[in-house]
Amino acid sequence: xxxxxxxxxxxxxxxxxxxxxxxxxxxxxxxxxxxxxxxxxxxxxxxxxxxxxxxxxxxxxxxxxxxxxxxxxxxxxxxxxxxxxxxxxxxxxxxxxxxxxxxxxxxxxxxxxxxxxxxxxxxxxxxxxxxxxxxxxxxxxxxxxxxxxxxxxxxxxxxxxxxxxxxxxxxxxxxxxxxxxxxxxxxxxxxxxxxxxxxxxxxxxxxxxxxxxxxxxxxxxxxxxxxxxxxxxxxxxxxxxxxxxxxxxxxxxxxxxxxxxxxxxxxxxxxxxxxxxxxxxxxxxxxxxxxxxxxxxxxxxxxxxxxxxxxxxxxxxx
Amino acid sequence: xxxxxxxxxxxxxxxxxxxxxxxxxxxxxxxxxxxxxxxxxxxxxxxxxxxxxxxxxxxxxxxxxxxxxxxxxxxxxxxxxxxxxxxxxxxxxxxxxxxxxxxxxxxxxxxxxxxxxxxxxxxxxxxxxxxxxxxxxxxxxxxxxxxxxxxxxxxxxxxxxxxxxxxxxxxxxxxxxxxxxxxxxxxxxxxxxxxxxxxxxxxxxxxxxxxxxxxxxxxxxxxxxxxxxxxxxxxxxxxxxxxxxxxxxxxxxxxxxxxxxxxxxxxxxxxxxxxxxxxxxxxxxxxxxxxxxxxxxxxx
Lengths: 318, 300
Known about the structure:
Largest interface: A-B, 106 and 97 residues
CATH class of the largest domain in chain B: Mainly Alpha
Number of helices of chain B: 16
Structural class of chain A: mainly alpha
Oligomer: heterodimer
Number of domains of chain B: 2
């Protein structure tokens, strides 16, 4: 419809106006179109990324320009037990939470891929934990993990009588670590489930029909059709999930702030504590920069690891 | 009960499998699908139920599980919400958050529409590389950037100003929106634009009158996604804003409402509930766009 109305509008504008002609000049138009996006990204993403690496090699503090100190910050971090602690917990947190999210998320996706009433309503409800601001749901978890009035303790102690004392969720290191991981899994399941559900829906039903004619069991259909077909999307979703779990900040900051006795610091919360709260920008930047090798490794591992398996299976099946 | 259902189904449908098998599959379906699905929904929604019920509970009930059933309220109260709205600057925080979310969403929508159009439709040498570069920008997490960004914000004289947030949020919104919109522009037939070009329309007219109207679903998806992401953002808002009045809701609840050793759980949960409602309402209005944008972006 709009096509038919165009000629008259175009004729009206067709005066030899140099601005109009300039905007019709392709290189200029391309530059103008890309300028806002690339400008924003250059000033607030690329430049800070470079600046962050530079800061990591200086002793800058808030209010004082630093001087270049070489690898001093990193040497200090290598001798700092808190940094090693944060590295350990970041890796542990990412590993366990990613495993949990994908196991449960894949299961939920498979469940949602069945036909039942109110399917779209259920799909909408399931996504809620991912929509709501993380800090706010983290506060709800903080309250759920309360030492005295935890609803989980109430259920286990007063309703089910499985325990005699309340669980001290956040008071000692290991329970606190696992409580945070549980909250992270809770928040991550919807994203994984809905993304994988989209992948499941692209698998052609004829594959399953063919397999059923050949007498494949439900497990075999999952193992030899669903799983290989899901590999590419699994690789992408997992890459994203690992990156954003490893660099998670909100959940830990909201629930424990790194405590008890610094046992739940992730690298991001440690960087915040040293860099912004403590004012040691150089050291904070060094901690942030120390995340980059882990991220690159995790990305390459999950992306190429999964992609290669898919390629091998593709070869074998052809 | 399942037995009778199975029988009626066999009577109604002559092609249905034998009786025992139908019963078996009905029970099986219940155990394998509905039961786990029910557990998932229960666990995924419980924190919200708990949040909601805590915000309407009087303090006496909140701290006494022996006499009151904690899963229900015997005498609901609006005291926590009243405290929040009249004794704290909660309305001010809501206003700031709304302003930041709308500002950064508008900015990133404009920037990413133009960028996506240039990359997908103006087709120049190296356009795939520009697209890839923007995509890679999405993989840079805010946790790495916030310390140097804080110094950049100070250099620009924007520290403690919501404008800093409006300018910084596009760093994670633009890559996402651009990729979403590239996907949408791809689905619009190129012939439409060629027709307009033959009729003598300029490139900008084509963008405004043909491409954009056809990409409205994509724009809506990108818009709601950006709005939610900027509403939920935490680490930049925590690092760049100092004064109480300029804080966004997630930061303000955590830093201003958590005071002393006795946590006011009622007020905290009421604040969380009110802070989640705008996104939840927004989300429920556009669920389909939301799901399609989430899955579309992953599939790209």
